Amino acid sequence: MVGFHLFAAHLRRGPDAPAPRASRHGRAVARLLACGALAVAVVVALCAAPTATASATAPATGAAHAAGHAAAPAPATTAAGNAGYTAANLPDWAIGPFTRSADNPLLTPSGSGYEAAALYNPGVLYRGGRYRMLYRAQGSYGGPSQIGYASGTDGTHFTEDTADNPVIGFGLAGQQDRCGLEDPRLFELHGTYYSFFTSVHPKADGSCYGSYDISESTSTDGVHWSTPWVVEPNAGNNKDAAVVTGADGTPRKVNGEYVMYFGQGDTGTDIAYSSDLRTWHAKGSTTPRTADPLDVHYPKGWQPYEVSVAVTDYRTVLGRPANQDIVVFTAGTLMANGRWFYAISEEEFSGQDPTLMLHQLSDAALTPTPDVPYEWNGQTPKTVWTNSIFFHDGQWMMYYGGGDTVTGLATAGLRRPQPAPPAATPFRTGFEHGQPAPDWVDGVDTSPGGGGISGVTAYSGASGPEASARQVLDHDGTNALMYSGQATGAADDHAYMRLFDLSGRPVRTGRDTTLSYWIHPQAKGADAPGVTGDNSSCVALDLVFSDGSSLHGLPGSPLTAASQCGTLVPGQWNRVGVDIGKAAAGRKIVRIDLGYDQPGGKGGYRGYVDDIALTNTPARTATLSSVTPAQAAPGQRVTVTGKGFGSSSHGRQLLLSDAGVHWGGAGDLGTLHIDHWSDTSITFTVPKPSGPAVSTASGPGNIWRVEPGSVASVAVVTGPGGGTSGTGQFTVAATDTLSDYYNDVGISPDTDPGCGALDNGTDTYSADALAAAAPHPLTPGARVDIDGLDFTWPQAQPCNDDNVRALGQTVLMPHRAGATRIGFLGAATNGAHSGTVTIHYTDGSSGTATLAQSDWGNAPGAGNTEVAAMTYRNQALGRQDHAFHVDEQTVAVDPDKVVASITLPSDKDLHIFATAQDGTPAAK
């Protein structure tokens, strides 16, 4: 098994971690900024240079600036700074949206001394007409850090106007081990400057990154600092002190004490208090706090690892009063949506009880992007991180580190008040960029009207019940809300998760108010092995009203989670539309929740919700009575009959859903060919299994395809108010063409290496390398004879589905008389894999055989014949040099019978690009 994968683990590591947060790479700063770095566990490949690794002692050519001065700015970037948030959808409590400075990067590495490799993560204040900055500096990638000083008058151009740099160094801190001083914060109160920073301590063997503590130092001028002292002991691996300040960076007391949020190892957020900014303690105690993280819940694998900045008494919207709660900036992978980024987000804590989290963004306030090379590349690629934000001259100024290498600035003005939503659609979201995002992540609603929780715990692999936006499965676009949990089987199992806070703009329900959404309850399978029975379908959106009542609790409620059990079809998208006006007219909606409710329903549940809408248009509901024929192949016509469809398709939609793909909806990427539309019947053509390449969230792909042998559903939408018929179904006729079953992109061109995901990451075969492979070059449609079996390599162009990832599906086979074996072209990923293939014969009998594939990065093993060998593969950031292979495997079949179909193993790491049989064609 090849262990070459992108290494970008930007984690503040605990005592047993093997390396510091900054990756240990060779140093070639200028080329990193110019072209991008491919950091792998074994090698570091920089662009297409003849030498694959950079010398650790090579000078940072092109990155230096004059000794004692900050670098001149690089060419301006115009990339927007915000991720999923805009002025239209950012909640009032959050600061933003942010825009990167055209002068970025403001500071870059220079010379051969303590800041030769990296200069980043600054703490900045505006005092006395100058912007004063403390920054983290490293002399080599992965090396220990010290703290330098620079200042300027315009906020973007800084000068290291002191000969005392580093102003907080190993000597001042008494660090004989020289393990590092990291990520300085800078505050000022009554003429005294305070700096809080993370001190790194050695392991027992003398190597660094054994433990951390929070250290503090003071100064009267920002340059000459006192000997640091320990604020929080290193036994708790404490770091990243975020003292609550006002908008100008001045520390503010909350309930009579200064408050400091900080990181408790990599496990969560903690809090401490002080009367003098010098000695800190737990609430009600005089001893330092070493444990007891706050109750801040994040999805498993997404949690922020570090606390950045905390601000109270701040403004975000023009004409609105200052917010007296506390906005806390965090940094981590919460905002990554399943992809690895280190980004910046925000949370809101109560100004009356700083331990109580009120809201959190579900997306990033600032995310590294490929068109911003100083963030996308560097010592730790795909990384932004902040120590500092304050309000000055009419805007918020957030200074941050990019790629753990350089310093940047992003700004945000005060937003204009947003107009009231249109009366016809007061709320709508598909969780996409620019649309409302959840105000909470995985939060149980225990507030008045909320359903609370009982008997529900964490789904396998999670840390608690989940409800958060993801980029995994969606109805249309790229995002949807994922939900999950584990019911214990108690008599009152339920969990209500809070999603959207509408209290600032309550939605008043009228007689014609409707709630609609799409929901995909997952069925037990390879993608959801922890699901039990129909648990995933026992879920519904819930509305909480200003009077403390809720939709699920109203007498005769039109929608409850329990009522959806057995009604929603698992494994596909279901549209839910309910008239809530009759039951709740006159009430004001202040929250949208998601509820699970199945008393006694023991087991796991998981699924996705998308395209939520509250509308006030009277619905004109259609009635669907039949779908004919019951089975139809791609390209054939299907007729839907019923009544109330309308005289034409104008303003109406026929919706088709199959295997997670959708056609006909306003936001669907696929379109349907409508052959006939009348008030009582609609005829359409089933989409063919392939279509033109389109751009999707995961790269180009043939999205216009139905799944052979699957059950497709159709529905008719007759008006903007969401009047929707019931759902009809038909079976998609199966074919014996393997390409109709393709479900994975395994080949990419060298010009677009990140468009596939053969190994569940971004690794793929290179189309260019396949074309030059030996002994058999493989190009689209190439014929290959392997030991008497005639294979055809996929016709698909790169970046399109080109192989079958084995997920237990049944594939029809061309009928061949006298066949003795079936051959497969493919390879395994993530190690060698094998599984049972079931062979179904035309006489109704069946047999089994073992399909064993070698890892694509290893030489062919037993039972595998080499078809094509290449010298590299593609990854998102470029090529990786190593030998990779396509192999052939065979399984024996009964020559006295005719193979009708095969059922593949359920192993996502088995990949099949082509099949072939010997024998001669047989009549069907």
UniProtKB/TrEMBL annotation:
<comment type="similarity">
    <text>Belongs to the glycosyl hydrolase 130 family.</text>
</comment>
<protein>
    <submittedName>
        <fullName>Predicted glycosyl hydrolase, GH43/DUF377 family</fullName>
    </submittedName>
</protein>
<keyword id="KW-0378">Hydrolase</keyword>
<keyword id="KW-0328">Glycosyltransferase</keyword>
<dbReference type="InterPro" id="IPR023296">
    <property type="entry name" value="Glyco_hydro_beta-prop_sf"/>
</dbReference>
<dbReference type="GO" id="GO:0005975">
    <property type="term" value="P:carbohydrate metabolic process"/>
</dbReference>
<dbReference type="GO" id="GO:0016787">
    <property type="term" value="F:hydrolase activity"/>
</dbReference>
<dbReference type="InterPro" id="IPR013783">
    <property type="entry name" value="Ig-like_fold"/>
</dbReference>
<dbReference type="InterPro" id="IPR007184">
    <property type="entry name" value="Mannoside_phosphorylase"/>
</dbReference>
<dbReference type="InterPro" id="IPR014756">
    <property type="entry name" value="Ig_E-set"/>
</dbReference>
<dbReference type="GO" id="GO:0016757">
    <property type="term" value="F:glycosyltransferase activity"/>
</dbReference>
<keyword id="KW-0808">Transferase</keyword>
<dbReference type="Pfam" id="PF04041">
    <property type="entry name" value="Glyco_hydro_130"/>
</dbReference>
